[in-house]
Design goal:
Elements (H helix, E strand, L loop, with lengths): L23 H13 L2 E7 L12 H20 L3 H4 L2 E2 L5 E6 L1 H8 L4 E6 L9
Antiparallel strand pairs: 1-3, 1-4, 2-3
């Protein structure tokens, strides 16, 4: 078992062997979510063609991808939209929400999800 894997990760989608795109930043974010209970994040999405960014007729594509991810998350976790405080962006292929550990593990397994980053203020000039 991977030493960086979260406890109970034997069948977890977070194992590096099960999730080729898994990064150590994902484990770091998961640990922060565990400590806080719920954390504001930005879920960056892939477009339907597999590329991130705006496509021709992008608004329709982004809306559809955002809806698929949000609907699947709500169905699979029994989460309430109010608890997630969902904000869908119109131009950027992303969704902002407040997630817990279960929701993070669910989202990270979705093929539409490019990555998940903490929605935190970054000082000007920070890398």
């Amino acid at each position: 078992m991977n030493a960086d894997a979260p406890p109970g990760a034997k069948d977890s989608p977070l194992r590096t062997t099960a999730a080729p795109g898994f990064k150590s930043a994902d484990l770091s974010l998961l640990n922060r979510i565990r400590s806080a209970g719920r954390l504001p994040v930005i879920v960056r999405l892939r477009s339907r063609s597999g590329q991130s960014g705006i496509q021709e007729n992008g608004e329709v594509t982004l809306s559809a991808t955002q809806k698929v991810v949000i609907d699947r998350l709500l169905r699979s976790t029994d989460s309430k939209p109010e608890a997630l405080a969902i904000k869908a962006f119109e131009i950027t292929p992303a969704v902002a929400m407040h997630i817990n550990e279960q929701e993070f593990i669910e989202l990270i397994s979705y093929p539409e999800v490019l990555d998940i980053i903490e929605d935190a203020a970054v000082p000007p000039g920070a890398p």
